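My current task is to audit a protein record that another person submitted. I need someone to confirm that the token line plausibly describes how this chain folds. Take the sequence as given and treat only the tokens as open to question. This is what I was given:
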Amino acid sequence: MTPRRMTPFKPATLLAAAALVVLGGRWLFGLLFGAAWIEAADYATALAVGAGIRIGILPVAALVPVLRIQKKVVLIDAVFFARVLVIPLAAWLGYSAIAAVAAFAGLTVIYNFATFTVALGAARTYERSLPAPAAPPR
């Protein structure tokens, strides 16, 4: 028996799934899991936004070693690691659970845009450092 090649998920498929949760989460959760799970769709929606942004900029991660910006990205990672503390902090301050999860997702979006911005800046700097293309021979 010949092994079959697995078809990997495409980012567009994952983005479509995230969009489905964001746009129809409450209805979808109610349909699939019952009325008791409708509130969970609010949490899934908040997390799907962060995941969708992450999937969208995932190719940037491949640029990090190529552009030699690991130190900058590790610094961003270290700063934004603190986003995991937002949930217990929100609970301590008396915010609702959904507000805490939404804050976590929002900080995740900011983290991903910060990483993207650093990589884009490094790519532009690298591109400017390249020599001009040679003129075509006459």
About this structure: The radius of gyration is 21 Å. The first helix runs from residue 11 to 33. The CA atoms of residues 26 and 41 lie 5 Å apart. Helices lie at 11-33, 40-61, 63-67, 70-80, 86-92, 97-129.
